Amino acid sequence: MDTEEPLVPKNEKRDLWDKIQIVMQPIGGLLTALTIALVSYYGSSYLNNKQNNEAKISLYTQLMSSREQSESALRKDMFNSILGTILKDSHSLDENILQLELLAYNFHESLNLMPLFVYMGRQIAMEKNIHLKEEYRKRLYKMAGDVISKQISSLEGAAASETMFITFPGDSIKYKPGLSQDFAMDWKDSKVFYDTVKVGDSNNIYKRVVFLKASGFNVDEKTVNVRLDIETSINDKFINMVTQEFTIDYFQFPMIDNTRLSNDMRCAVVMRDFDFPNFVEVDILYFPGSHSSLKEKPYYDDVVKKLLMNKEGD
Hints:
alpha+beta, four-stranded antiparallel beta sheet, 8 strands, about 30% strand, elongated
């Protein structure tokens, strides 16, 4: 009978990679544990910071919202009280001008106050005391000038501005104070404004040629009848012409009283000085609609057009 030979394990020779594998197994486990711990730590820290920031933002938003609601309620009550006072005949002209000053300095960006200024101008014109009439008129013009300066300051950095000087005709000597005479004049000038809109990889250059023509004036009322023609071209290709006729005085407020143009741009004519018989100083302002008054809303087609332009540029 044959005898069975005992099984003897073979001594396999381990190469370098086998030795590396034996050494790396415990190190790999340690690295895995460290990685999980670090990811957990930094992930938890990131989530905590994110939650803290969101909580701060939420708190700030709530505070700002509450503040705006309180200010809106205060301004609403103030507006109703002041407007009701101005339109009552029981108050003196001095008190009404004071109320208009409070209204103008607090609501000049959201309301078109020109009708109230014109109304107050008519009330001042009926004042029999010459000295009081002159004093009230100075206050009214100063108030209007302050509002215009505030609005122009708000547009600083966004608006392009050009100054024109409308000169009076030689026969203006015929003017007689107090008669509110209308005189004819023939004056015109033009200015050019540019803005660039990026569409994809190219730029559309808008060119606006603003023509201003003065056809008449009234010295007592300090008004000038003008015609505004704005010619628009894109990349030197004519697009359209916008025409408006109106009367300018000290009560044109650019953020509210302006001409709407394509690409959601605005053009405003502001009378800065009426120095008879020398000249009338006029500013032409060109600015984006996003800087107009709170009551001015962009057209939907302008919004969609800008969104599409931004999408094409991405």
